[in-house]
Amino acid sequence: MTLEKRLPLALFFLRISVFLVLLMWTLDKFFRPEHGAAVFEKFYFIGGLGNTPVYIIGAVQLLIILAFVAGFQKKISYLLVLFMHAISTFSSFKIYLTPYADGPNLLFFTAWPMLAACFALYYLKDFDTQWSIER
Predict the structure, then answer these.
(1) Element holding 85 (H helix, E strand)
(2) Three-state SS string across 14-72, please?
(3) HSE value, Cβ hemisphere, 13 Å, CA-based, for 18
(4) CA-based Rg of the chain, rounded to a whole angstrom?
(5) Phi and psi (nearest 5°) for 71?
(6) pLDDT in tens, 105-120
(7) CB within 8 A of 16, min separation 6: which ones?
């Protein structure tokens, strides 16, 4: 199998796996808006969000990740996914410095390989053609 056939399939599976993680984070905003508000307060220093703003943020995020998983407007949707995840990763910076404090926070370290995956997808977006709207 040539690289031209293997690369699109590998990028497709990477895109699906990143989408699944982001989908769970997005759905959390709809199923547990109070948790979404708590995350915004703790990590982004935006307090006092009620359910409606969290639902709106979730709806916008859902539109972005649906465009991303469909391979629609890759230049924009892949960049927005990279940007969203980068903000999420860097906002947790204090936790990376004390991974064993306040209970184990080791799962936060999974953000780094996912950030690398988001970057790879953005960087290689022109080769991510498998089951993509924009071939």
Answers:
(1) helix 74-91
(2) HHHHHHHHHHHHHHHHHHCHHHHHHHHHHHHCCCCCCHHHHHHHHHHHHHHHHHHHHCC
(3) 34
(4) 16
(5) 70, 30
(6) 889 999 999 999 999 9
(7) 69
pTM, rounded to two decimals? 0.93
Q: Where are the domains of the chain?
A: 3-127
* Interval 71-128: pLDDT, tens: 999 999 999 999 999 999 999 998 999 888 877 788 999 999 999 999 999 999 999 9
The model's confidence at residue 135, banded by pLDDT at 50, 70 and 90, is: low
pLDDT, the chain, mean: 95
Number of C-beta neighbours around residue 14 at 10 A: 17
Within 13 Å, how many C-alpha atoms sit on residue 19's CB side? 19
Other CB atoms within a 10 A radius of the CB of residue 59 amount to: 13
Give the amino acid at 56.
I
Between CA 39 and CA 35 the distance in angstroms is 6
